[in-house]
Amino acid sequence: MVAGLRHRQAGQEPAAPRPGRGHGPQAEVRRLLSLGARQLDVGQTGAEQFTVLADPEGNEFCVLDHAPTR
Fold it and tell me: Over its length of 70 residues, how does the chain's per-residue pLDDT go in tens digits?
């Protein structure tokens, strides 16, 4: 797992945002890439509101462009 990454099981409530992390999803993608994540092409069309990444071990995850609505 990449330092600074957190994951949760399906159905779990998301953790509260960390203080000082209000820099937006694209900045977070850049930060994750600098930590060793890589961007993946899984057939996106370009209209998605998320970015697909993989950590150095190959575990895939997404960074959402905005918080999900309930």
Answer: 455 556 666 666 655 555 445 589 999 999 999 999 999 999 999 899 999 999 999 999 999 998 777 7
Residues 36 and 57: their CA atoms lie apart, in Å, by 10
The CB density around residue 36, as the number of other CB atoms within 10 Å, is 13
Burial code (b: 16+ CB inside 10 Å, e: under 16) for 52-65 equals bbbbeeeeebebee
pTM above 0.70, yes or no: no
Characterize the bridge pairing of strands 50-54 and 38-39. Answer: antiparallel
Phi-psi region of 37 (alpha: psi -120 to 50; beta: other; left: phi over 0): beta
Nearest to 63 by CA among 19, 20, 14, 11: 14
